[in-house]
Amino acid sequence: MNKKDVLRNALVEAQYELDYKKPFRYSPEIVGVYLAGSRLMNTNLEDSDWDIIVVYAPTPKQIYDGKRKGYKSSFHNSDGTKVEVKFVDVRDYLQGLKLSKIEPLRMACASEKNKVFPETKKLSIYGQNVKYFIQYFLSSGRYFILANPKTFFYSVKGQTKALIK
Description:
about 160 residues; 5-stranded mixed β-sheet; single chain; globular
């Protein structure tokens, strides 16, 4: 399977996870799906799993409660490879950009083949607004203004050490 097919499949699986398996009390909306891990960095082996990050817009109830719930799930592609999915609250994603963390910065700079956004017509007005804000924010390059060089350096240094091991 190519990257786009895996990402589209992950979008469908993640929405199913949120709607029917109920890891959350109320279903948040997915606003972006990103490739991560070895397949993103092109350091994967033939049997490597797929690492996917799903950014979701929290429900008004989650915002009111102030809760951020990280969640992980997995499934297998039609070719049998494992896909690990990490759900990230959009507030944590934006905070990660502000703190110059490498994973959110990679997601911000991802090429079109490494990200998928849900169809706008399937989102509520709230979900559409969050999606458009994220897309505008990323396309404008404003996240680079937020980048803290010192934190970015330590983030890259940590990632480099992890690759060397």
